[in-house]
Please model this.
Amino acid sequence: MSESVAASEYTPALTRAAFGALAAAVLIFLPGPMFAQLDTVEQLLVVGPLVGVPLGLGLAIRAEADLKARRHRRALLAFQPLAALCAVASVLAPRGATAATVAAPWLLFTALVGLEGLRRLASALRARSEGATVVMTLREPTVALHAALAFLPIGGIWHGIARAGAHPLGFSDAIVRLTATHFHFVTWVVPLFVGRILLEKSQDKRTWSDHALLLVALVGPLLVAAGITVTQLTQWRGLETASALLLAVALLTLGIRVLVVSGQVIRSAPARGLLRASSLTLGLTMVLAALYALSAWPNIPFMVRWHGVFNAIGFAVMGLLGWVIEDQHRLTKVAHAAAA
Model:
């Protein structure tokens, strides 16, 4: 794919995210009985589809080059605003069958994104170079970008469950809604960040710690989900605590890597500032996550207000915006140089 084409395809993601941010601000801050009913978790479930997801898609598309992939992502980007509006409408509706039905287009959209991610993973495995093993291919940074797309449908499923007011396996309402939020932000955003950082390194300079960080980014959130499920079914918190601490350490490492990369290779000043703010915020939220894993303190309302909001807005949205601005900055400069 030419650099000029790649640069132009970042614009829809940024435009959709900008309009989404405006719509989210109106819904969250405009006075009135309809909007005043949104609590913090519901506000985040508005921001995710309207802002975070289009930015994440903008970052993920840089990994593909063929014509078929370009058609796929154009179709996904065209469908995203309508699906996001349905997700928001379901948040505004009282929970139940109607809200779950309204959320169905968002579930369909995330499923299509997930299928695109799986298609890319399969294509990468089929196209691996001669002599390369499956493990060697899975260590490529673009695989993290593909896998991130495959995580998003989990958020769509839990969004539908939350809007239906269902409680699978007896999970509390708070856990169901927080799971929907978590899988719209951290779970699929972390692999995007890891893949993007590793793309800054040549293959011969990637170390075992880079591969370990990639592995934890891909399996860590699933281990935490498994741990929470085991706790719910057996009241044994061992797996939940261990997996949460492992993920917290990995994400603290990720935050440090983002700080280093932002100082070494990020060319856009706004992108550099956003990425530094994102990494510092991640450090704060991971300290809170470790404290909660070890002692169940702070309590859930405190974690929602500080850990949840800072993870979603401070780490995910600001970081995604930083990466997308940086990539567009680079691609635009290359295109201008080629045209000169």
